[in-house]
Design goal:
This protein is mainly β. Helix content is about 15%, strand content about 45%.
């Protein structure tokens, strides 16, 4: 199998390839769900490509079949240059097309009226304020109240908050088109790829699992004060010896107290006890972060994968990919982070 990389200037008007770059020395692409623009890139080459969109391709050839896979489309700026006595190299920082929404704010006091279809308007506003193609999301959800911009808003923050009202988030495909993905819980996702430790696995051997038990409570106290009546108090304790966060396992209490519970007016003691029990169960979920490396495969941030790396103690684990760094070099390795949750009580 042969792997090479191609870098192509993109016409922002048609979003098509224009001309190939021949002077690229290195490139790295990062995709990140926690980054408001969903990622970045870095490019080192001989010529300045400031304010130009560049699309990166992975080109594979095997058994006479040639594939050209886009890895990302980024607009570049050049913050520094380096001269080694023979030639000049330019280090260029790349940004996803969402950066165009971050660069300008809505008009002061810009407002959307109650009853407006959220996703229909979000798609139109994106198209009006950026050059990348926008694939509009479909939803019947409408605004329950007038939606007004803040003085500190950019179009990106304004639209991110807007589509959250319909349980959507921004997404970008590998050719740089703007998409809208529906927010889903990890447990509701279906794995599109399995990473295991079999003989033909593309998974590298090193795996890191991070978790943070600090602050996870094993006791909850809830105080409900009705507008007219005597306050009600509920206390629930996790004393299960099989739970690693229980008072028995830890040897101490870690207390979470809630004085303004989200309950209906007139709730009784039994109902408050149920509320406290469910709240403690909710707070007893622990997020695990898994970091690993693998050869390139068509997995993107927001996708669900199955981790079946038995030797590392990860057996049939469903996790959501939150970050990737693709190194455009021999082997095209991908450093990846995925998260999953486990209930520790209840």
């Amino acid at each position: 199998m042969k792997q090479t990389f191609e870098y192509v200037i993109v016409d922002p008007g048609t979003w098509g390839d224009v001309s190939k770059l021949t002077d690229v020395e290195s490139c790295s692409i990062t995709r990140d769900l926690d980054d408001e623009t969903l990622g970045s890139a870095s490019l080192t080459c001989d010529t300045d490509h400031s304010d130009e969109y560049v699309r990166t391709y992975l080109v594979t050839e095997q058994d006479g079949i040639r594939e050209r896979i886009p890895l990302g489309t980024h607009i570049y700026e050049t913050p520094s240059t380096k001269f080694d006595g023979k030639k000049t190299s330019l280090s260029q920082d790349g940004y996803s097309p969402l950066i165009e929404l971050k660069e300008k704010p809505p008009q002061l006091g810009y407002a959307l009226l109650k009853g407006t279809n959220i996703m229909e308007l979000a798609g139109r506003l994106c198209s009006e304020n950026m050059r990348a193609p926008v694939v509009r999301g479909e939803s019947s959800d409408t605004l329950e109240d007038n939606f007004v911009s803040d003085t500190e808003d950019t179009w990106l923050t304004f639209l991110t908050d807007l589509i959250s009202c319909a349980q959507f988030r921004f997404d970008i495909d590998d050719s740089g088109r703007i998409l809208f993905a529906r927010k889903q819980d990890i447990t509701a996702l279906q794995p599109i790829w399995t990473f295991d430790d079999g003989n033909s696995s593309i998974l590298y051997p090193d795996v890191t699992v991070d978790r943070d038990l600090y602050g996870v409570p094993n006791v909850i106290e809830v105080v409900y004060s009705p507008t007219d009546g005597t306050p009600i108090f509920s206390r629930v304790v996790n004393d299960d010896p099989n739970s690693i966060i229980s008072t028995v396992s830890r040897g101490r209490e870690v207390v979470y107290r809630e004085t303004s519970p989200s309950v209906v007016e007139g709730i009784n003691q039994a109902q408050l006890d149920d509320y406290a029990r469910n709240k403690l169960k909710e707070l007893s979920s622990l997020e695990y972060k898994v970091s690993y490396r693998h050869g390139y495969c068509p997995v993107r941030i927001g996708d669900c994968v199955r981790l079946n790396y038995v030797r590392a103690g990860l057996e049939d684990v469903k996790a959501m990919v939150t970050r990737q760094t693709i190194k455009c070099e021999s082997g095209c390795s991908v450093d990846e982070t995925a998260v999953f949750t486990r209930s520790l009580w209840g």
